[in-house]
């Protein structure tokens, strides 16, 4: 979303009656990057400690990929994950870099590392 960095935003949610089942997540998205409209993100749920996100309370790897054509409301169906929450919690969206672009960067780094390794192993030790 913001280049090749991982960004995470969270909101504290208070619940009245426990437990609750999370069936869907609905949020408003504003996307200003007209060159890349793909949005990759992971949905996380955290317990609260000292009024801050603490430990994950849902260990499902909920990855989503959206193609954003315009700003507006987005609804993600989560009913298949059977997520039950028993206390107030933080919900976060962890925005991930474009996975295809990241894969290309990793491959380029590996090629550079191979060249360095070949030069190091091929050099003679002046002793």
List key phrases describing it.
two-stranded antiparallel sheet, 9 strands, alpha+beta, single chain
Task: Explain this structure.
The mean pLDDT is 82. The protein is extended and about 65 Å long. The chain starts with 6 loop residues before the first strand and ends in a 5-residue tail after the last helix. The protein is of the alpha+beta class and 127 residues long. Helix content is 19%, strand content 44%. The protein has one domain (7-98).
Could you give a short description of this structure?
This protein is 19% helix and 44% strand. The mean pLDDT is 82. It has one helix at 99-122, and strands at 7-13, 20-22, 24-29, 38-49, 52-56, 62-67, 72-77, 83-85, 89-96.
Provide mean pLDDT, rounded.
82
H/E element order: EEEEEEEEEH
Number of domains: 1
Q: Which regions are unreliable across 5 or more consecutive residues at pLDDT < 50? A: none
Count of separate DSSP helical elements: 1
State which percent range the strand residues make up.
Answer: 35-45%
First-to-last CA distance:
51 Å
Category by helix and strand content: alpha+beta
Number of E-state strands:
9
- Helix fraction by DSSP (H/I, runs of at least 4): 10-25%
The rounded Rg comes to: 21 Å
Mass-distribution shape: extended
Largest sheet: 5 strands, antiparallel
């Amino acid at each position: 979303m913001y280049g090749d960095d991982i960004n995470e935003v969270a909101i504290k949610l208070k619940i009245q009656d426990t437990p609750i089942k999370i069936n869907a997540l609905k949020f408003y998205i504003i996307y200003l990057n007209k060159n890349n409209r793909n949005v990759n993100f992971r949905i996380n749920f955290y317990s609260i400690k000292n009024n801050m996100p603490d430990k994950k309370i849902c260990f499902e790897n909920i990855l989503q990929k959206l193609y954003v054509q315009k700003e507006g409301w987005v609804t993600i169906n989560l009913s298949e994950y059977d997520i039950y929450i028993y206390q107030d919690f933080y919900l976060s969206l962890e925005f991930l870099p474009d996975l295809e672009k990241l894969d290309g960067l990793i491959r380029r780094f590996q090629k550079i590392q191979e060249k360095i390794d070949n030069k190091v192993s091929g050099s003679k030790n002046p002793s």
